[in-house]
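pls ignore typos typing on phone
2-keto-D-gluconic acid + seq
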Amino acid sequence: MSYNKKPNVTVTRKLPDIVETRMMELFNCKLNLDDKAMSREELIKAVQTCDVLVPTVTDKIDKEIIDAAGDNLKFIASFGTGVDHIDFHAARKKGIMVSNTPDVLTEDTADMTMALILSVPRRLAEGERLVRTGEWQGWSPTGMLGHRIWGKRLGIIGMGRIGTAVARRAKGFGLSIHYHNRNRAVEETEKELEATYWSSLDQMIAHMDIVSINCPHTPATYHLLNSRRLSLMKNHAYVVNTSRGEVVDEQALVKALANKDIAGAGLDVFENEPKINPKLLKLENAVLLPHLGSATIEGRVAMGEKVIINIRTFIDGHNPPDRVIETMF
Ligand code: 8YV
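k done
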């Protein structure tokens, strides 16, 4: 596919100014300057008129929307790494290519994962609340005791780019690294991280002090951490999720937290975000963040640059560097 004129590109959300400026120079762009998430009707209208759609995680590009697309829509250049908001198979069937923005948010997301790994056992958010509400009575030898990080076992579910970056950080904090992944990591990585591979997720979960979810949400990982698996965890163990809410059965997690079947959870993502299970809001042993994993200006500009490169290569008739392929699911 090669375009003689500037392609019509619809961007569904407000992107950093520098990204939008460059996109306006290169493409015939429809931007969303007031950043109000587009309704289904608006999305359908958009796919009927644009050549390229740039959605984000907040747009559900399902089969119905893809089927409504005009013949001109040939490329969905998503702003983000996860592509679970797009029905990839419906797109492929219609000859629409999909790309994402991997790599550039790896370190930021790993930082936020590490922040949650530290925050939950050390009761950071609880402590902050105590100070802000004026209820802090001063230091005491037994006040607000948490649990030590150093020497504990971290089990990483999904040892891809982000999982590996989490492991590198965690090793520096004295955690021993354990992981479960579809494929075993290369020997070099295992050696560097002194990582132990568990082919059985159930076995790994049962032995960990902290479990971090770093796998993508796919049909195979939906509710991977369900009530059965949560019940295998130790009572003193913590769950951290910076991937997608759907990987955890949130109802089951809330129950496990409320019953103290597990000790706590650090969540940056939720099953029905931005709606949060009200029971979760009441739990002191949960640290809750508003999907901040990749929220750095550097990261978001780099994601925008990737979107631009993917669109440019596509309209020049080449394979976009971050083309999403079947085997990712
Ligand atoms: C992004 C993310 O900000 O890239 C991802 O998969 O989860 C986020 O950090 C978001 O997806 C942007 O669309």
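The mean pLDDT is 97. Residues 56-57, 79-82, 105, 293-294 surround 2-keto-D-gluconic acid (CB under 6 Å). more later
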